[in-house]
Automatic annotation (TrEMBL):
<keyword id="KW-0997">Cell inner membrane</keyword>
<dbReference type="GO" id="GO:0005886">
    <property type="term" value="C:plasma membrane"/>
</dbReference>
<feature type="transmembrane region" description="Helical">
    <location>
        <begin position="159"/>
        <end position="187"/>
    </location>
</feature>
<feature type="transmembrane region" description="Helical">
    <location>
        <begin position="101"/>
        <end position="119"/>
    </location>
</feature>
<keyword id="KW-0812">Transmembrane</keyword>
<dbReference type="GO" id="GO:0022857">
    <property type="term" value="F:transmembrane transporter activity"/>
</dbReference>
<keyword id="KW-1133">Transmembrane helix</keyword>
<keyword id="KW-0813">Transport</keyword>
<feature type="transmembrane region" description="Helical">
    <location>
        <begin position="75"/>
        <end position="95"/>
    </location>
</feature>
<protein>
    <submittedName>
        <fullName>ABC transporter permease</fullName>
    </submittedName>
</protein>
<keyword id="KW-1003">Cell membrane</keyword>
<dbReference type="Pfam" id="PF02653">
    <property type="entry name" value="BPD_transp_2"/>
</dbReference>
<feature type="transmembrane region" description="Helical">
    <location>
        <begin position="216"/>
        <end position="235"/>
    </location>
</feature>
<feature type="transmembrane region" description="Helical">
    <location>
        <begin position="49"/>
        <end position="68"/>
    </location>
</feature>
<feature type="transmembrane region" description="Helical">
    <location>
        <begin position="131"/>
        <end position="153"/>
    </location>
</feature>
<dbReference type="InterPro" id="IPR001851">
    <property type="entry name" value="ABC_transp_permease"/>
</dbReference>
<keyword id="KW-0472">Membrane</keyword>
Amino acid sequence: MTTANPSLARSFHANWRQYIIYIGFAVIFVVFALTLTDKGFLNPNNLLNIVRQTAMIAVMAVAMTFVLSAGEIDLSVGAVAGLATVTVAMAIAVAGPVAGVAAGIATGLAVGMFNGWLTTRIGIPSFLTTLAMMGIAKGVAMWVSNTAAVPILSPGYSWLFGGGALIGVPVLLFWMLLFGAIGHVVLRRTGFGRRVLATGGGEMAARYSGIDTKAIKFRVLVLSSTAAAFAGMLYAGRLQSGRFQLGEGDELSVIAAAVLGGTSLFGGKGTIIGTIVGALMIGMINNGLILMGLEFSQQLIARGAIIILAVALSQKRS
């Protein structure tokens, strides 16, 4: 017993950087809890509201973890989510909620396959492919909706995809936990997850070991767009409408959540649990800064500074 404690302490001291997201989350939560008690930070409704605001980011960030771990990036997720809200709302208006769900998933698959084809077959870097797709998806959403909100008049859809609650717990929390659990198992316990990490860790070595790296990259880009479309379905359900503006700018929060959680921008390393905590941390920071009464410009500065500090601390120095 006496030898185990020093060993545990030495292990933590040597590897504390990989736990920085959890330490940072706890520290920020305590600071907000102590300074914003009178403003209702610890109020259960406020904490559940953080979950509601964070769920869509977390869903997209889980898939982004696979993309980054494979050595690629997807900048189109926010725009794809916005496009999906519009296609879902329009399909529900014409043929009902089942058609809406099918339209949302089809939107994600179509965009993801196009991104994957351009990246793996044509050879355009995913940064440029998805940057262009960001504009295309937003433009299509504006065009087909005529820049107007498309209402969703299906209570069942709205309840299941964002607006409902079970025993007082938002349905969005269950979706976030479901995606997180599946993502964690796939990344850590399956051959596909191991091939994703191997591809990002060293593409040439992975290729020599028999891994079809192009197929892996194609699949993670399809996965990312499909998850973004599902997040769009959650946006549409929660707000009971499809709007091209929904999801705008989310790509930065999604990437930040994954990197904060310990996923490397250079590939080969990813953690789903850390990504979920990173998404919750960003949502908590946003919520706390609003309760502090900071102006929007000040919120942007403070949020950016906190994220930079957390990422800087998590990096190993050579």
